[in-house]
Design a protein that fits this description.
Elements: H1 9-21, E1 49-51, E2 56-60, H2 76-88, H3 90-114, E3 117-129, E4 141-156, H4 161-227, H5 233-267, E5 290-292, H6 296-299, H7 304-325, E6 330-341, E7 353-362, H8 370-436, H9 442-476
Parallel strand pairs: 2-5
Antiparallel strand pairs: 1-2, 3-4, 4-6, 6-7
Helix pairs in contact: 2-4, 3-4, 4-5, 4-7, 4-9, 7-8, 8-9
């Protein structure tokens, strides 16, 4: 065949693509769910400020969330640790790889939508044929055949099956993108709260060890006084019991502290046995004084978990359209051009050329109810995704409401614990003076010491809770990932 025999190909391809552009897409089109019609997170009006006597926190609806919100705790060690974690954490790396995988899969599928598949083929065979096989007399002959050809095929997307497939895959890309953001902001929040927990445990351990040392010193004094006959054996035994109780607290705190540091190491991509992790104390962390509280209508566009669920809803919508398109005709065009000859040198002779041009149409007629069942299944999957989206939104709003109420309670609790700690310290000083002058019994002094120890530990725990819940609010509001210029959209 001459070269001019295929001069119709470019114009035909343009014609087919023009037809494709005008083709319909069966099935429902996705529309973003409307934001919830609520204007507050809690049943009662949320206060604009909370205070613990010393530090006041302000809630602002106009304040955006910075991507590196953890810097508001003003800890250089914490900032550096989070940067290491974001670079080395395997879960974040896996989420990044999953996003690349999804994007490249979409690119491959999208290229197939407008570009025909073209394959080249070449081969040589040696064969023996007998004329008898074709009803002719004669002796068998042996010969070689060399062939080379180019094959082209293209499926016309008249009813949008291919485009729905791409739409579904693009929705998966969106889900993977928000999964990556969720991994990053969750990791940052986990590192912050784990560092706060370490600081709390370290301070509690220090306080408990101080108490143990004081109890041991007191026991030594009492044992001397017992030998001099100044105190009874009962008082000495009570002090020994108090010392044993103080010592029993320390191993539990040491275990929790070690496990917390192990967790912190894993978060930043290190093995628990590696060294180099910083030590945290509560005095090294500053309580953020301004906290963002986004309006409810904005929350659904900020939280990665809601955006992931929305992308999954989009994917389920596209999958329903893909299933519906499967019941419509499928048209495929194919063509091939090549040459075949008994000698390789004859491939380019005019008489050796071969070609084919054809098309096929497949119309499902009867599948025993399978097509209808597949559509019902796809519709049920869409309904499921819609219900899961609503549940995700409800859970997100509950999370925000819980954190806001926790912060309000934390401030009140910390104020009360501060008052209790001050009062118990004054009471202990008074009891020590009274016991020295013989005004109270040793048992009364021990009770005063026990109250002081308990209030000191409770004060440390209240300080840590307020810090941790402040970090939880940044996470609940979405973590500010949209303001991170380093993250690819």
């Amino acid at each position: 065949m001459s070269r001019t025999d295929f001069s119709f190909a470019p114009s035909a391809l343009v014609f087919l693509l023009t037809m494709l552009a005008g083709c319909t897409m069966v099935g429902p089109d996705f529309s973003k769910p409307a934001a919830p019609g609520v204007n507050q997170y809690t049943e009662n009006t949320q206060p604009t400020t909370v205070t613990d006597h010393d530090v006041t926190q302000t809630f602002s609806r106009d304040q955006d969330i910075q991507a590196d919100w953890w810097k508001l705790f003003h800890s250089t060690a914490l900032n550096e640790l989070i940067e290491v974690g974001l670079k080395n954490n395997p879960s974040v790396a896996a989420a990044e790889a999953a996003l690349v995988n999804a994007r490249e899969s979409v690119s491959a599928q999208r290229d197939n939508l407008f570009i025909p598949a073209i394959n080249a083929q070449a081969g040589e065979i040696r064969q023996r044929l007998s004329p008898e096989a074709f009803g002719f007399p004669g002796n068998p002959s042996t010969f070689s055949l060399t062939n080379a050809s180019v094959q082209v095929s293209y499926t016309l997307d008249f009813f949008g099956a291919n485009r729905r497939q791409i739409e579904s895959m693009e929705a998966q890309v969106e889900a993977e993108r928000y999964l990556l953001q969720a991994a990053r902001v969750t990791l940052a929040a986990n590192i912050v709260t784990t560092a706060i927990r370490e600081a709390s445990l370290r301070d509690q351990l220090h306080a408990s060890e101080t108490v143990e040392q004081l109890e041991s010193k007191t026991l030594g004094i009492l044992e001397i006084r017992e030998r001099l006959g100044a105190v009874s054996q009962t008082e000495v035994q009570l002090q020994r019991a108090s010392l044993a109780q103080a010592r029993a607290i320390v191993p539990g705190l040491q275990k929790q502290l070690a496990q917390t540091r192990h967790q912190l190491a894993v978060y930043v991509g290190k093995f628990p046995g590696e060294t180099g992790l910083p030590h945290f104390q509560l005095k090294d962390l500053t309580l953020p004084q301004k906290l963002p509280v986004s309006v409810p209508s904005a929350l659904v566009h900020q939280r990665p978990d809601i955006l992931i669920s929305e992308a999954q809803l989009h994917q389920a919508t596209a999958n329903l359209g893909l299933t519906i398109a499967g019941a419509y005709p499928n048209v495929t065009l194919s063509a091939s051009f090549g040459a075949i000859a008994t000698r390789p040198g004859d491939l380019f002779n005019t008489g050796s050329s071969i070609w084919s041009l054809g098309g096929s149409l497949v119309q499902p007629l009867f599948h025993g109810g399978a097509l209808e069942a597949e559509q019902r299944a796809a519709q049920a999957a869409l309904d499921q995704a819609a219900a899961q989206y609503r549940q995700t939104v409800l859970n997100a709003f509950q999370n925000v409401a819980d954190v806001l109420r926790a912060l309000e309670s934390d401030a009140s609790t910390l104020a009360a614990q501060s008052d209790a700690s001050g009062a118990s310290l004054r009471s202990l000083s008074l009891a020590q003076a009274q016991y020295a002058s013989g005004g109270i019994s040793f048992l009364a002094l021990m009770n005063a010491e026990e109250r002081q120890n308990q209030t000191q530990l409770a004060l440390i725990q209240a300080q840590a809770a307020r810090l941790a819940d402040s970090a939880a609010l940044f996470l609940a509001m979405g973590g500010g990932w949209w303001n991170d210029g380093r993250v690819a959209p």
